[in-house]
Structure formats: C-alpha cells, structure tokens
Specification:
Layout: H1 4-7, E1 10-18, E2 21-28, H2 41-47, E3 79-82, E4 88-91, H3 94-101, H4 109-120, H5 124-137
Antiparallel strand pairs: 1-2, 3-4
C-alpha cells in the first residue's frame, strides 16, 4: 500500500489536524530540466492587464528554473544583509531574508526564536512555510 505522503516526493512536509481532518502540506522538489512556459496572450492579460503581451522587455522569473530564475526570491544565492542584531549575515536566499523581516521589529523573545528558525531553514520553501505559519498564528503582531 502506498501512503499519500509517498505519492509525491515532497519536501518540508507538515501535518496539521483541523477538526476531523488532517491537512498534509509540502512543496514539490524543483525540476530544473523543465522548459520554461511562455504565457499566452490571455494568460499575460490575467497576470497584469496593463501590460501588452507584445512588450519585448517583459521577463518572467517566478520559478527558479525559468530563464531569469536567478531573480526569484527562491533562487539559491546567498545575500549579505543585516540580521536582527544589525550584524551582517549571509542569508541563504532572498526568501529567507524576506520572511525574517516580518518579525524583525517585534520585541518579543518568541519572535526572535522564529527569526532563528527561518535563518536555519534548509530551503526557501521551508523559510516561507515558517514565516507564513507564524504570521497566521500571531496575527496580533
């Protein structure tokens, strides 16, 4: 028998009991050999109705494997920016830094702990999951 968690090769899998149900979530592994998908004219209009689909200066970089994927928050490139102490820190990705910024100005020990968790996240997907989950659980911050 194959368990649901074995159906897809997910990373950062988490389980959450919601009433009588269990929510299982995770992220798909990046697939670097996929060809980029160029949005159709209709899809481009949905993404941003103010942009002409014939604009030659449009680049898409949502996925790290897109031609301009190095511009993605999830792109695996370190950046040196201040951390919560003001010291220069080598953030694994822009996404790590972005998620940690949600808690930088909160003067609570728990917020500092979450920043440390985000710093240690093994992937940008995990950093995003931590940041989103904490932001949802502590909306009063």
């Amino acid at each position: 028998m194959i368990q649901m968690s074995q159906a897809l090769d997910l990373i950062d899998v988490s389980h959450e009991v919601i009433g009588p149900d269990i929510l299982i979530s995770g992220f798909l592994q990046p697939i670097p050999d996929l060809s980029p998908v160029i949005p159709s004219i209709d899809e481009t209009a949905v993404l941003d109705p103010t942009v002409s689909p014939f604009e030659s200066k449009i680049i898409f970089f949502y996925k790290t494997w897109d031609p301009f994927g190095a511009f993605s928050n999830f792109s695996p490139h370190f950046i040196w920016l201040p951390d919560e102490t003001g010291d220069s820190f080598s953030w694994p990705t822009v996404e790590h830094y972005y998620q940690a910024q949600k808690f930088m100005r909160i003067d609570k020990p728990l917020a500092k702990d979450f920043i440390q968790q985000i710093k240690r996240a093994r992937s940008p997907e995990e950093a995003a999951r931590i940041g989103r989950k904490v932001q949802k659980e502590h909306s009063e911050w």
